[in-house]
Amino acid sequence: MSKMIDIDFDFQEEAGWRDSDRYSPTLQEYHRILWSKLLPSGKLFTLKKISQNRLYHKSELGEYILSSDRAVTVFRKQKQLFKIISLIPESEFLQFRKLSDTIGGIVIWPSNRIDGKMTINGSRGFNRSIADRFDLTIECVRRYYLGEDNPLDDTFKRYSDFFMLFKDFKSYVEFFLLQDIVTDDFLAVKIATPFDNFRTSPIPGSFEQYLIYKDNTTKFLKARNSRIAKWACSHLVPNV
Description:
The protein is α+β, with helices and mostly antiparallel strands and 240 residues long. The protein has a domain of 166 residues. Helix content is 42%, strand content 12%. It has eleven helices and six strands. Strands 3-4-5-6 form a four-stranded antiparallel β-sheet. Strand 1 and strand 2 form a beta hairpin. The radius of gyration is 17 Å and the shape is globular. The mean pLDDT is 94.
């Protein structure tokens, strides 16, 4: 039977305002439901929970340990943005922050360290060209599949077996229901702010730039939440 996904579910509240990627059992179950499905190869990618914050797959496809990543940042911890964010009505900012914590703003990545180096989740947070921005992360994924240089290329190459599961960028986007962050032809990523090929800081530098980022990111989050809800209502979920 199909499973319902509550796109408004408050994972943070369930986690007692701790890290919901680690402490929300509902979030882990949503990931298991959503991403246990057929790959482009036609083979079934099934996930099972093996710990409080780890999902696991093992088959002829390989062995994968994955974890949740609240992928969309609102920059609330960036000191240089404190003043800018303070100019936004508190209720409006809180609404944006809450939306970023819904399932539409969350993804999964491989979580096993390779050669003691950072995971994808860690790398995209610490990389100064990305600064935890999801749109720029997906632009790196697009370039990776094309064999083009990008700020996360070395990290992605460590997890090449994971990306090979999805064959190409279009299939990766379709699998993870990310169509709303790319153009209809899958040839470009919809970057939330004016983009200069990673040459300047990804952190909005003015109130106007932050509003542009917030508005475009909000559109993506709402659209992906809607897409996820529709998918969950119309697809069968494997009994895994």
